[in-house]
Design a protein that fits this description.
By secondary structure, the protein is α/β, with parallel strands linked by helices. The protein is 22% helix and 33% strand.
Length: 485
């Protein structure tokens, strides 16, 4: 009788996705965006990994490794998925790359009292052939259960210069092949040679390995990362579904990727059994707008469009409209992405260089690399619809049962007008209920709170007036979500 293999899915959800600006921003990066269908890339990853169960593979609740700032976004998107067991969310206080993140996930898995197989996947990838993906990953799980480190290698269909490559020891479709070499992103001529050779595969960044095997390999190649990660894990705190490693201990961990820390060293070490399972499932990491165009449905002229768009005499162009009509005439191989507060126009072949624009935004101190005009919060969202000297207008949505913090402002007063739903308003010593078309005024320096005790979303218009309207002019006295600023 075949024994059951226990699998712990690990989803790496801490990336920033700068090459998909302006849709991807630091506080709402690409893994949480819906670029295809009706699920975000993160949700697609969670669903794919939950589908691995067979008679010999038992899949546990996922472990999400993410950024402290995205914790409520992770929970909100997981709640939208029906049938998934409650996830554990490991919150990194700062970025330390993928090797420490995977190590913390391995330590968490071993705390279960077993030595499960970790299936580690980035949160920002997509596949078009779910059945082939599942079959390849199940094959990888069975190989990893025997003690090997397994990586999924994507069968290339073009000479791609944006990916690292894996050279297999031999070509054998469907088999777990020995890994002979990892190679960096090539130039075009080298990528063409790799494609013609037939034994090179794109590095997908998906790893399958027993928790103990990963830790042993890390101890062998990077004992400094292993020791520092164990110290951060030992100093962890637990808050409901959130696990936070010790902040100061985590800060001391060297920043390194899984590839550099372990994978690239394994082919030359006899103590390391590293193998590759080929993946031919319409995979893409959606690392830039050109990759989004590659996987999108296109018209007869090769154009892909989302939203309210009109195209004329254009070819091989991607147009993504978010909030208004976008018209395009006479363009070839161009990317146009429109959002309420920023528009990107780029040569599709140069879409990897969008990160240079993000760098300029960061260097100039502008906020468009961090925040959208509509900003998500654990209680709902706000949309800054207008602003001028000494005033700002916001549209605010509060989810049923949610509330903002009890707070006050030193520099602004606020007017609230209920558009729909019922608002419970704390205004100084008073607590009142406001319904549609009713309003209230919050004087400067007055303690206040907005809450939705009903069962339908609450929407209000907020008009702020004062000498300073920044989001950092908030003094919180109580907060359901543990925020202090």
């Amino acid at each position: 009788m075949t024994s059951t293999i226990n699998v712990h899915p690990v989803i790496m959800a801490g990336g920033s996705g700068t090459r998909l600006w302006p849709l991807s921003r630091a506080q709402h990066p690409k893994q949480f965006l819906v670029l295809q269908g009706n699920r975000s890339l993160f949700q697609q990853a969670a669903q794919r990994l939950s589908s691995l169960s067979t008679a010999d593979i038992a899949v546990a609740a996922p472990c999400i490794v993410g950024n402290e700032e995205h914790r409520f976004l992770v929970l909100d998107q997981l709640r939208e998925l029906k049938g998934l067991p409650p996830a554990t969310v490991l919150l990194e206080p700062m970025g330390r790359n993928t090797a420490p993140a995977m190590t913390l996930a391995a330590l968490h898995a071993l705390d279960s009292g077993t030595d499960p197989v970790l299936v580690v996947s980035p949160a920002d990838q997509t596949v078009t052939d779910e059945a082939s993906f599942t079959t390849a990953l199940q094959n990888a799980v069975r190989v990893a259960a025997g003690g090997a480190i397994v990586i999924l290698g994507v069968t290339p269909d073009r000479p791609e210069t944006g990916f690292g490559y894996i050279r297999a020891d031999h070509v054998g479709a469907g088999e777990a092949q020995l890994v002979a070499q990892f190679v960096e992103k090539p130039d075009l001529a080298t990528a063409q040679r790799y494609l013609a050779a037939g034994d090179y595969y794109w590095n997908s960044g998906m790893f399958v390995v027993r928790a103990s095997v990963w830790l042993a390999a890390l101890e062998r190649f990077r004992p400094d990362i292993a020791t520092a990660s164990r110290a951060a894990w030992a100093a962890k705190s637990v808050d409901a579904s959130f696990i936070r490693p010790g902040a100061s201990e985590f800060a001391a961990i060297p920043s390194e990727s899984v590839d550099y820390a372990v994978m690239e060293k394994c082919p030359n070490d006899t103590a390391c059994d590293i193998r590759m399972v080929p993946l031919d499932a319409g995979w893409s990491d959606l690392g830039a707008w050109d990759a989004v165009w590659q996987v999108s449905a296109k018209d007869i002229d090769g154009n892909a469009s989302v939203g309210d768009t009109l195209l004329s005499d254009s070819r091989n162009t991607l147009v993504h409209a978010t909030s208004r009509l976008v018209g395009v005439v006479g363009l070839d191989n161009v990317v146009i992405v429109e959002t309420p507060d920023a528009v990107l126009v780029a040569d599709r072949a140069r879409s990897q260089d969008v990160k240079a624009i993000v760098g300029q935004l960061q260097g100039s101190g502008r906020s468009e690399h961090t925040l959208h005009r509509q900003v998500h919060r654990p209680w709902g969202w706000y949309d800054s619809i207008d602003a001028g000297p000494r005033f700002q207008v916001k549209r605010i949505m509060v989810k049923p049962g949610a509330s903002l913090s009890l707070q006050m402002h030193h520099h602004r007063a606020e007017h609230w007008i209920v558009v729909s739903g019922t608002a419970e308003v704390t205004n100084g010593d008073q607590v009142i209920l406001l319904t549609e078309n009713q309003s209230t005024y919050i004087p400067l320096g007055t303690t206040h709170r907005l809450a939705n005790r009903g069962k339908v979303p609450l929407e209000i218009i907020e008009v702020q007036s004062g000498s300073y309207l920044g989001e950092d002019d908030i003094v919180r006295f109580e907060d359901t979500y543990g925020r202090s600023t």
